[in-house]
Structures are given as structure tokens and as C-alpha cells.
Design goal:
The protein is α/β, with parallel strands linked by helices and about 425 residues long. It contains 15 helices and 17 strands. It has a 7-stranded mixed β-sheet with strand order 4-12-11-10-7-5-6, sandwiched between helices. Strands 1-2-3-15 form a 4-stranded mixed β-sheet. The longest helix has 22 residues, at about 320-345.
Length: about 425
């Protein structure tokens, strides 16, 4: 059983405990039912650990869907937020704020190709802005018929209408049709599929270096280089969605560095804010000129408090050499999962991913049960399908944490195989 600090014996009766507190019951009563809520309410957190309202301790292998690369309630991020909110929170975007300008400068210097930044509130909102930027740039340069964007099957770019239209997953799209026009889809790691999808209307290609919600599907280096060359040859913009893969998640500041390419537009979010809501579009001078006053905006985008948090996040990365330090636990977690794959061949179909962005796919739909059992054993896990667990721990995760996870998976998979739950469905 995983190390949980205080005993997790209460976890098995957690539904009753939460009803006593009223939080879970009241939440189910008053909040829209858009999430499959887990029967736990977290009260506090520190780095890779969480505590629920009953005092039980958990190790987080999800980072709030990849938002907390520097850990929960990072003291340096908290200090920056407190300092900012004590002065000014929301000055309006018709004025510059110091933290916004500083964060934009840091992002441009960090990427190298970036010369201008637009701040949004989230990844989906930043994707919407990137779609508008690509269309505006292309129609300004060519004509209004050059507006289509190609994305990839099993991608995920967000749940707003533009982002959802780019998300090539029928299950997520079908209930909200008709979707927005101007999106075509190609097969990942298949350059001929991309070539066959391009036409005279294509203005951009939107791609995740690693498909996160799609199940941790990694793009081939050869394919990414072919894609970059194809975009350059046809003057098509290459937009990288690094919402999940950015900020050290793959062993580099940004995943594109692993492929030796440079995008035309990049979208980041999630871990940039260290838990605060923020998203950003980064591009070069030429493309950014397509946005002029009145073409795009956001009331809370570039909020001074969120930007102060972002500055603290980037400073923390540099001060603690976090990208480099994250490589060791990434290699160790991968090796542990590979050992489980070898040991439980009947249960495990595949291990895939890079750095601390990994997935384990099973031959049977056991992911949901593993999430439930994980909570009972002080582990916060995430499934991206009935067959697949995704691991996005804070980059500060350590060997002991990974050993606890491995012990839990080893014990549970052994029980599954003994009871026949490894069988394909």
C-alpha cells in the first residue's frame, strides 16, 4: 500500500465521511454535472501531495490535468501572487502591467522564435486566438478563401467551439454539431495523409507534439521534421499546441525542442500559471502584426496576478534547474512501467510517452477501477479512456513516490490477472 502519512483506513468509507461534511453532497446538488466527480474533497496541498477533508494524504500523479509542474501551492508562486494582489489585480488591458510585460519578455527569451505574446485565460481560449491569428495572417497575405486548418485524429484542443471543431474526436464532437467550418483532419505520423488533406484553402496545421487527452500518442521525429518542411514549402503556418507538453513535461522546456524544429505559432497554458488560470499565444513579429486593435482581446487575459504567478513559475524553473532535474524521475517512472509491462503481458498492452508524460494502456477496461482503488491507497490517478491511465505528476515527484505507485500497480495487476480481469473485452 502507498505511503499515505496518516492512515487511509477511512478512505473506504469516504462517501459517508463527505456526506457528513456536506461538501460532496452540496456540490452534487448545486454544480452542473459536467464531470465524473471522484468521492473525495481535497482541503490542502503541497508540491506533489494532497490532503482531503478527513486528513488523509495522497500523492498526485495528475498535477490537476498537468497544471502544476512546479507542484501544488509552491511557496515561491504563492509569495508572488500575494505580493501582486496586495497591489493591483486587474488594471485592464488598455494599460500595461509590470508582471504582464515581464512574463511576455521571459517567454519570448525562453522560446527564441517568439517576439510577441498574447495572454488569454486558458488553453482553449488561447487555441481560439491562435486560430484567429492564423486565419487573419493568411487572409491578409493571400485571400479570404485561405482559412482552413488541419488538425489530427485523436487530438484534443479544448471544449470551446473553435477548439472543439479542431478536436478530431467524434465522441466529443457529435453532441454539439454542427461544428464550425474550416477544419480538416489528417492521420498522426502519416505525412502522405497530411499532403492529401492540404488544398488551396489550407492556412495552417495545428498539432500536439504528444496527444495528451488522446492517450499519450507521441509524434515521430521524422514526421515532425517532414511536417515543418512541408509547411515552409507551402507557406502554411505550423501551430504547436504545447498546453500539456510545455514547461519541462517532456524533459525540455518545450516539446518542440526534442524535434529540432521551430513553430510559427505556439500555444501554452496549464503549468505556466502554477495553478492560476492563464494561457498564451507566442509568435514572431511578422505573423503577430496580423493582430491590430479591435481584432482580438480578452477582459481577464494577462491578469496581473496570473502573470505574476507565471513569472514566479519561470523563475522557479531556472533557480532550481527543474527541467534537468525532472529527467531522472521521468526515466525512472518509465523503467518501472516497462517492468510492469514485461511482468503482466496479459494485462498491459503498451507503455508510451516521453519524460513525465506517460501512459499505460491495458487489454481490458480496468482504468476506472484503478483510479478508484488508487484513491483508497492514497494515489491520485487519471484515466483518459476505459483502457488507459495517464501519468502527469508534478516534476518534483521523487523515487519513493514512484516506488509507491509501482507497488500499488504491481499488487493490483497481480490480483486482476488472478481474477481474470486481464481478459480483453
Amino acid at each position: 500500500m502507498a505511503d499515505s502519512g496518516k492512515s487511509n483506513s477511512k478512505n473506504k468509507n469516504i462517501n459517508n465521511n463527505l456526506k457528513n461534511t456536506g461538501i460532496y453532497e452540496e456540490g452534487m446538488k448545486f454544480l452542473m454535472n459536467t464531470y465524473s466527480r471522484q468521492p473525495v474533497v481535497f482541503e490542502k496541498a503541497k508540491m506533489q501531495y494532497l490532503w482531503d477533508v478527513e486528513g488523509n494524504k495522497y500523492t498526485d500523479f495528475t498535477s490537476g490535468y498537468g497544471c502544476l509542474n512546479v507542484g501544488h501551492s509552491n511557496s515561491e508562486v504563492i509569495a508572488a501572487i500575494k505580493n501582486q494582489v496586495s497591489k493591483i489585480i486587474q488594471p485592464s488591458n488598455i494599460y500595461f502591467s509590470e508582471s504582464q510585460v515581464l512574463l511576455a519578455k521571459l517567454l519570448c527569451n525562453l522560446t527564441g522564435f517568439g517576439k510577441k505574446v498574447f495572454f488569454a485565460n486558458s488553453g482553449a481560449e488561447a487555441i481560439e486566438g491562435a486560430i484567429k491569428l492564423a486565419r487573419k495572417y493568411s487572409t491578409d497575405k493571400y485571400n479570404k478563401e485561405r482559412y482552413e486548418i488541419i488538425s489530427f485524429y485523436n487530438s484534443f484542443h479544448g471544449r470551446t467551439f473553435g477548439a472543439l471543431s479542431a478536436t478530431a474526436q467524434t465522441k466529443k464532437q457529435s453532441l454539439f454539431e454542427p461544428l464550425l467550418q474550416g477544419f480538416r483532419h489528417a492521420a498522426l505520423n502519416d505525412i502522405s495523409s497530411v499532403e492529401n488533406t492540404i488544398n488551396e484553402k489550407t492556412c495552417a496545421i495545428l498539432i500536439e507534439p504528444i496527444q495528451g487527452e488522446g492517450g499519450i500518442n507521441v509524434t515521430d521525429k521524422k514526421f515532425m521534421n517532414e511536417l515543418r518542411n512541408l509547411c515552409t514549402k507551402k507557406d502554411i503556418l505550423l501551430i504547436l499546441d504545447e498546453i500539456q507538453t510545455g514547461f519541462g513535461r517532456t524533459g525540455a522546456y518545450f516539446a518542440y525542442e526534442n524535434y529540432d524544429i521551430v513553430p510559427d505559432i505556439m500555444v501554452v497554458a496549464k503549468s505556466l500559471g502554477g495553478g492560476m488560470p492563464i494561457g498564451a499565444i507566442i509568435s514572431n513579429d511578422e505573423i503577430s502584426k496580423a493582430f491590430v486593435p479591435g481584432t482580438h482581446g480578452s477582459t481577464f487575459g494577462g491578469n496581473a496576478a496570473s502573470c505574476a504567478a507565471g513569472v514566479a513559475v519561470l523563475n522557479y524553473f531556472k533557480k532550481h534547474n527543474l527541467v534537468e532535474k525532472s529527467k531522472k524521475p521521468g526515466r525512472y517512472l518509465l523503467s518501472c512501467l516497462k517492468q510492469l509491462e514485461e511482468k503482466y503481458k496479459k494485462s498491459v498492452k503498451e507503455i508510451r510517452g516521453i519524460g513525465l508524460m506517460l501512459a499505460i494502456e491495458f487489454n481490458s477496461p480496468v482504468a476506472g477501477e484503478l483510479v478508484k482503488l488508487g484513491l483508497e491507497n492514497g494515489l491520485v490517478l487519471n484515466k483518459v479512456s476505459d483502457f488507459t491511465l495517464r501519468f502527469l505528476p508534478p516534476l518534483v515527484i521523487n523515487k519513493k513516490d514512484i516506488d509507491n505507485l509501482t507497488l500499488f500497480l504491481d499488487k493490483t495487476l497481480k490480483g486482476f490477472e488472478k481474477n481474470g480481469k486481464d481478459e480483453k473485452k
